[in-house]
Specification:
CATH topology of the largest domain: Rossmann fold
Oligomer: single chain
Strand content: 5-15%
Number of strands: 16
Bound molecules: uridine-5'-diphosphate
Helix content: 40-55%
Shape: globular
CATH superfamily of the largest domain: Glycogen Phosphorylase B
Distance between the termini: 32 Å
Largest sheet: 7 strands, mixed
Number of helices: 16
Number of domains: 2
């Protein structure tokens, strides 16, 4: 059945006041009134391609709640695609990052597949979109819906969360495929300037970096005791089902409980929770370079025998629009098997259950809370919410200097950036430096949390959206 409507529970944005202060709250409330007046009966309709797994879904879940909380009519639909469609859009995604993915070219038959699925979804959408409504389409998967929405008289914003800064033949071919759908959209939103292809009309372009919600299940403060209990219960560290109760607090303040275990590839029993942990949380996507993290850790981070690496991602059947997950996980497991026994013993590959997204978020929160250092060794990255999430928790982050990660971390101040994401040696020594020097790690973490408070929380993001919507109306 095409188009899945995702429920949005209104949240009052004044709950942010203890974190961002009165002035920022007043500014938001004033802007919300302006938007409400400008909207006069219009709705904002968001469309993307998955309700769980990945940064866009993560952000829509909470961002739209705050918008609803102001009384503005906002909704969210997830498009329905065939396996063929998602294989194609994954290829486009890879090519936009200058990666050949499944290696196939984009053909005329692909244009038909793309058009057919887009049209089917657009027809369903016509039942809920009125002329004058604002339709926000996220990422290349949804681009084919734009022309139908324009014909209907909607204001169409296409928001792109992905891409590489490097010009290349693959990237150009992918943009050539997507672009014809977007000629008439009213606004383009990109994360940073360097990711914008040169055909995008500058007049219609706005740059809006993503943000996180400090009250989401994933980002709420979690005590070390709770985090430890969760990691024990899912099987990542020693302890277990008879220990402390693995409870967590949800965005609405209610209490949840982690019931499922993780799928874990490891040698022998779980490590002690008192060890130092390096953690990367990512989808199983080659561009996240989980395998590279593992190899860099095994080869370069060894002085400290107390440190362990956790590579965690969603269960590979859990993310509908990401069909390559299983393949990438298998490659990682094979590479892990090739490691010397001692190294295998220090590294575990973890698949986090996705059945309940709050449970999943609580496990990610626990991993980030208990990490000694968080790694994000992406080869390309639109923004990298995992970096923001870890910074918010006051963790030292070692990450590649690619895409939006560069806007988040000031090297040496609020984290460490590695210039060449493929340089295992530099990565390893950056990770080691943080593991070895607790004071330095704490300083980086404290500055990181401060930077997120200033730049990457929802108010800045919502104000930028509001400005754009007022301008387009
Ligand atoms: N994530 C998650 N569970 C997982 C793996 C990732 O909830 O098992 C989340 C992660 O915490 C972050 C998002 O998915 O919020 C990934 O966003 P990011 O911008 O880092 O990368 P993307 O997946 O969008 O490329």
């Amino acid at each position: 059945m095409p188009l899945n409507s995702i429920p949005i529970r209104p949240t009052d944005l004044t709950i942010l006041e203890p974190i961002i202060g009165k002035d920022r709250i007043h500014r938001m409330l004033a802007t919300a009134s302006e938007v409400t007046a400008a909207m006069s009966g219009r709705s904002i309709i968001n469309v993307n391609s998955t309700a769980k797994g990945g940064g866009v879904a993560e952000m829509l879940h909470w961002l739209l709640r705050y918008i609803r909380g102001t009384g503005i009519d906002v909704s969210w639909y997830v498009m329905d695609g065939t396996p063929e469609f998602f294989a194609l859009t994954k290829r486009i995604h890879n090519m936009l990052h200058d990666n050949k993915g499944d290696g196939l070219a984009l053909t005329a038959a692909d244009v038909d597949t793309f058009r057919e699925v887009s049209l089917r979804n657009a027809i369903e959408l016509r039942a809920v979109v009125k002329p004058g409504d604002v339709v926000v389409l996220h990422d290349p998967q949804t681009a084919g819906i734009a022309p139908v929405m324009k014909e209907l008289g909607a204001i169409v914003i296409w928001r792109c969360h992905v891409g590489t800064e490097r010009d290349s033949e693959l990237r150009r071919a992918a943009w050539d495929f997507v672009r014809p759908n977007l000629e008439n959209v009213d606004g383009f939103v990109f994360t940073r300037k360097s990711l914008v292809p040169d055909w995008v009309d500058q007049e219609r372009l706005v740059l809006i970096p993503p943000s996180i919600d400090p009250f989401s299940t994933k980002n709420r403060p979690m005590t070390h005791e709770r985090a430890r209990a969760i990691l024990q219960n899912v099987g990542i560290v020693q302890g277990g089902v008879n220990g402390a109760v693995p409870e967590f607090t949800l965005a609405d303040g209610s209490t949840g409980r982690v019931n499922r275990m993780a799928d874990i590839v490891r040698t022998g029993p779980a490590p002690s929770p008192d060890m130092k942990f390096a953690v990367q949380v990512s989808r199983w996507d080659r561009l996240k370079d989980m395998q590279g993290v593992m190899e860099a850790f095994a080869e370069q981070v060894d002085g400290d025998r107390e440190s362990r690496l956790v590579l965690a991602g969603p269960v590979v059947t859990g993310v509908a629009d990401d069909p390559e997950g299983g393949e990438v996980l298998t490659e990682c497991v094979e590479a892990w098997r090739e490691l010397p026994h001692f190294e295998r013993h220090r590294i575990q590959l973890v698949c986090i259950p996705m059945t309940d997204i709050d449970e999943n978020a609580a496990i990610v929160n626990a991993l980030q809370t208990q990490a000694t250092v968080v790694i994000q060794k992406s080869l390309e990255e639109g923004f990298g919410l995992t970096v923001t999430e870890a910074m918010w928790k006051g963790k030292p982050v070692v990450a590649s200097a690619v895409g939006g990660i560069q806007d988040q971390i000031v090297h040496g101040e609020s984290g460490l950036l590695v210039n060449d994401p493929r340089d295992a040696k530099e990565f390893g020594s950056a990770v080691q430096s943080v593991l070895d020097d607790g004071k330095f790690a704490r300083e980086l973490g404290a500055n990181a949390a401060q930077r997120v408070t200033e730049k990457f929380l929802g108010d800045r993001h919502l104000l930028q959206y509001a400005e754009l919507i007022i301008k387009l109306i």
